[in-house]
């Protein structure tokens, strides 16, 4: 019979569950895996597998002391770190959804919305197209492996054994909305500018020929030219994706800087 002391069991439980809370909260908050399309049991199983792989190479965390206040604070810190990393990655994906919304409103497709099956909210069709395109590019460029490497590296920068909330820069998450809208504007600027010139031309035509029914030809023509401009702008989409992705990774890294 193996004699297992209570202290050994507490060490094993602490070594597993403290990193588990950070990894599980990260998977629940990140896009793709944290969406409604992935069942809760699958996300929980993936968190258990990732924790089992990382625990042998992590520094030993402190032993949980029952229901003490330090235990709750340490668990809350792990949940906060994982949620912050996942939410920052979620903002990166929403940049392209907002950009698609700006383009769709300019070309007259702002009313054409559909339910996003991943998040359960209504998104314009063009924004949903950009979200699908970004997801495919993210997976094709091994972005998921980079993100898993980030969550593993976070245990070296911010160890689970240290109870320190000041090292997590939460203000960077609050200011991430600035580059959310700036990135969306940068992505949609070529198409929006082209459509603005087209609408300006229609305004001049209306001024020159008031009897011309501009609404009868302007709306379908603007929509058609908007689709053509969107198709032409896809050639430079990869460059915009790389720029925004680099900035998003820099923001995620800045969250864990000491």
Shape: elongated
Helix content: over 70%
Q: Gyration radius, to the nearest Å? A: 24 Å
What structural class is derived from the secondary structure elements?
Answer: mainly alpha
The figure for the number of domains is 1
Number of strands: 2
What does this entry look like structurally?
The chain is built from nine helices and two strands. The relative contact order is 0.13. It is 71% helix and 2% strand. β1 and β2 form a beta hairpin. The chain has a two-stranded antiparallel ribbon. It has one domain (6-254). The radius of gyration is 24 Å and the shape is elongated. It is mainly α. InterPro entries: FliR, T3SS_IM_R. It holds the Pfam family Bac_export_1.
Secondary structure elements and their pairing?
Layout: H1 6-29, H2 40-54, H3 69-107, E1 113-115, E2 122-124, H4 125-140, H5 143-157, H6 171-174, H7 176-208, H8 214-233, H9 237-254
Antiparallel strand pairs: 1-2
